[in-house]
Amino acid sequence: xxxxxxxxxxxxxxxxxxxxxxxxxxxxxxxxxxxxxxxxxxxxxxxxxxxxxxxxxxxxxxxxxxxxxxxxxxxxxxxxxxxxxxxxxxxxx
Length: 93
Known about the structure:
Layout: H1 9-22, H2 26-39, H3 66-92
């Protein structure tokens, strides 16, 4: 079949790479590229992926306690100087 198509620059570069590497004409290289695209599985199922997990030990924080968690995050955000001032303020309450 004969038709006219407009190719994006990146597609044309890939066709040229195929032509040079496999010594093909334009039509054969375009067909090769199209077949590769047809054969490619572009769907990604969640079952295809797995992430490593690590046991980090027992938490030193009570994750059920919002206040304790927020206090800890404040200490991490503001560093050691904030930690000392925060502990001192807690003692004075």
